[in-house]
Amino acid sequence: MDKAELMTLAIQLRKDLGEDSSSPIDIFAIAKGIEGLSIVYYPMGDNLSGMCVKGSDNNCVIGINSGMSLGRQRFSLAHEFYHKYYDKTMVSLCGKKIGSGKGKEKEADLFASFFLMPNDELIKKTHACSVKNPRGNLTLSDIIRIEQFFLVSHKATVIRLAENRLITQSEADQYLQMSVRTLAESMGYDGDLYRALPPEKQYRTYGSYVETADRLLKLNLISEGKYESLLLDAFRPDLVYGETDGGDLID
Ligand SMILES: [Zn+2]
User: 137 CA to middle of ligand 1, Å?
Assistant: First the structure.
């Protein structure tokens, strides 16, 4: 598939999932509402960013390497959407380095980029930033504004800006070497985009798996003990033992 086709697919999927074709989106929340989809957050070490395992009847498990930054996890999830919806492969294991894969991996990276940063909006945003600069170029602060707007990792943003020729390749090479969290925080942004979650929060399962376990229990098809063990296997002790950090607020 070429870039134009991937761009069209990305916009179409946004619409199919009830989103518009331009705004920043909360991909974590969207994923939790997709029928038959379970999402497992797990620290997968140094080689994988995520995986997608398809089963029968539209069932699918997407694994996300939760040891990576939050911005990168959002990109990984969009990448796995490509495998879920447009790749016939039943099991996909995805490498860590954005843009370095070939074939389907490269397509999935481009799809993820178009899905999270729709082209028209990216160009509009970029123009709004660069027009304020005397040389009409994008500064590092502008790039931070753009990645914080779309909530995508620094690396994914820089690669996309270079891909669109909105910055030069040598600027991209330079920006890719920079750690930007401190600068982003000094600009008033939250640094979470550039951080992984604390280790105790890196293990979680959401979506269909949890809902199915609950349904089986309510239908008396599994015992309370089996339900609890299924949830504990899925890193959801909070659902078995209750939250330890206070109750709900209805406000
Ligand atoms: Zn992949």
Answer: 33
- In this prediction the pTM is 0.93
Which residue carries 């504990």 as its tokens? 232
Between the CA of 68 and the centroid of ligand 1 the distance, in Å, is: 15
CA of 200 to the centre of ligand 1 (A): 26
How far is it, in rounded angstroms, from Cα 233 to Cα 92?
22
CA of 60 to the centre of ligand 1 (A): 14
pLDDT band at 57 (very low <50, low <70, confident <90, very high): confident
Q: Are 39 and 207 in contact (CB under 8 A)?
A: yes
Question: Quick one: average pLDDT of 100-123?
Answer: 94
Return the residue matching tokens 């399962």: 205
User: What is the pLDDT confidence band of residue 200, given thresholds at 50, 70 and 90?
Assistant: confident
Distance of CA 97 from the midpoint of ligand 1 (Å): 11
